[in-house]
Structure formats: structure tokens, C-alpha cells
Specification:
- The chain is mainly alpha-helical and 262 residues long.
- It folds into 2 domains: 85 residues, no CATH class; 129 residues, DNA polymerase, domain 1.
- It has 13 helices and 3 strands.
- A 3-stranded mixed β-sheet has the order 1-3-2.
- Helix 4 packs antiparallel against helix 5 and helix 10 crosses helix 13.
- The longest helix has 20 residues.
- The N and C termini lie far apart (98 Å).
- Pfam families: DNA_pol3_finger, HHH_6.
- InterPro entries: DNA_pol3_finger, DnaE2/DnaE/PolC, DNAPol_HHH.
- One of its GO terms (biological process) is DNA replication.
- This is DNA polymerase III alpha subunit.
Length: 262
């Protein structure tokens, strides 16, 4: 046991240590220990390790270990199986955690910007990341069609500069539409939503995505007003589509004037 657990103060931390414990203290063969490793690798598998209870506890008791101690070792292995890694994986993960913690503490705005531009990833949504950053003093500026790039950016050249959210965070907005926005904006600022739609060649769907994300606030005010502007900027052509007399649609939808219906 000391051979396997001395350097981690008696607690199994790595999968390799559990394999060593099984071989040294419970008499597992190398092949059996590898099967035990595979059971641990099945993350949060239901009952994956329970089949080894008798084998481990009985094997340790047979080799002179107290039964209570053997059961405590198995309890540690069972808990380890909930979230355990090989040593190489754990070491690389620990390094990433250490570096990430340093960046989050000393360059919070840069760290947030990098995470937002790496989406989708991990367990946290962009909204959760932004809320956490604001709680830790980072100034986060909303998406704005007049200034936002595709990626989120720092608004300055210092580590604690405000973070401007990027157009990539808008659900339903394609990257090519954002590219056209940036190109048109580089020529001259947008006068209004209609000017934006015309010069960036945006569809009604593009404008509605921007309005829903409040990215048109600087051109059209609040979300509701922006949605109305979006509808007006790109008329729905289907409403004016010509139809044949054989269509089972009302006559006024076929392009005939209301006067002819009287």
C-alpha cells in the first residue's frame, strides 16, 4: 500500500494508483487491474465498480488487512470512480486550471474575451460567463451593430479594458452577414436600419436576429422599436407575390385591387 499511495498521503488520486492497490493489496493480475481501470473510465457509470467489491475486500482480508480498512479503501475507490483520471490527464488538466485561474485573477477581461470567442465550449453559457465577469469588476458592453466585430474584443490596449460583445453571440446571424456589416460600416457609419439593411444586404431574418439581441439599439432604440424598423426595412415579398386565378387564395392576395371585389 505504501508503494502505491505514499506520495499522495494515502489517498488514491490517479487511476494507476488504484490499479497498483488492486494488484499489491488484493491480488489482482495485471489484466484484472486493467478491467478495473476500464470500469473507472466509464465516467459515472451506474454500478460499474460494485462488481469488484467482494474481489477487492476479500482479497485484502485474505492478505492480512483488517476488513474495516479494506472496506474504507473500496469506498475511496468507489468515490474516485465518480471523477478520476490517469495521472497524465490529471497533470495536464491541473496545469490548465492553474493557468486559467491566474488569467482570471490578473487579466479578467482578456480571459472573458478568449472564452467568449471559443464558444461553444465547456459547461458555461456566454450569459453565465458575462454575469460572472461583471461580478468580478469587468465592464462588458453589449452587442452593437455599429461597433461590434464578429468576435468579442477589448475596447482598448490595457488588460482591464471594457469587453465589447461580438456579433458571433447573436443566435441566427450568419458569419457572412456579419462580414458584410463590417465591410459596409468601414465605408461610412450607418444612418439607420434601412441604410444598414441596404448596404449590408441583410435579410429580414438577419435584422430580426439583430433586433432580438438588442444590437440595433444605437440605430432604432429598444428591442420592440428595432423589430418594427427591421420589418419596415425589408418588406415581406411573399405578401405581394402574384398568384394565378386558379389558386385557392382570396382575390385580394392575388394582386387585384379591393375595388374590383365590390
Amino acid at each position: 500500500m505504501r508503494t502505491a499511495l505514499a506520495r499522495t498521503l494515502g489517498v488514491p488520486i490517479f487511476q494507476e494508483q488504484v490499479m497498483q492497490v488492486a494488484m499489491l493489496a488484493a491480488g489482482f493480475t495485471a489484466g484484472e487491474a486493467d478491467q478495473l481501470r476500464r470500469a473507472m473510465a466509464a465516467w459515472r457509470s451506474q454500478g460499474g465498480l460494485e462488481q469488484y467489491y467482494e474481489r477487492i475486500v476479500h482479497g485484502m482480508v485474505t492478505r492480512g488487512y483488517d476488513r474495516a480498512f479494506a472496506e474504507s479503501i473500496f469506498a475511496q475507490i468507489r468515490g474516485f470512480g465518480e471523477y478520476g483520471f490517469p495521472e497524465s490527464h490529471a497533470a495536464s488538466f491541473a496545469l490548465l486550471v492553474y493557468v486559467s485561474a491566474w488569467l482570471k485573477c490578473h487579466a479578467s477581461a482578456v480571459f472573458l474575451c478568449a472564452l467568449l470567442n471559443s464558444q461553444p465550449m465547456g459547461f458555461y453559457t456566454p450569459s453565465q460567463l458575462v454575469q460572472d465577469a461583471r461580478r468580478h469588476g469587468v465592464e462588458v458592453l453589449p452587442v452593437d451593430v455599429t461597433v461590434s466585430d464578429w468576435d468579442s474584443t477589448l475596447q482598448g490596449h490595457i488588460l482591464d479594458a471594457p469587453v465589447r460583445l461580438g456579433l458571433s453571440l447573436i443566435r441566427g446571424l450568419a458569419e457572412d452577414a456579419a462580414a458584410r456589416i463590417e465591410l459596409a460600416r468601414a465605408v461610412r457609419p450607418f444612418a439607420d436600419v434601412t441604410d444598414l439593411a441596404r448596404r449590408a444586404q441583410l435579410t429580414r431574418r438577419d435584422l430580426q436576429a439583430l433586433a432580438s439581441a438588442n444590437a440595433l439599439a444605437s440605430l432604432a432604440g429598444n428591442r420592440r422599436a428595432a423589430l418594427w424598423h427591421a420589418l419596415a426595412a425589408v418588406p415581406d415579398k411573399d405578401l405581394l407575390r402574384a398568384t394565378s386565378d386558379d389558386d385557392a387564395t382570396p382575390a385580394f392576395a392575388a394582386g387585384r385591387s379591393l375595388a374590383t371585389l365590390s
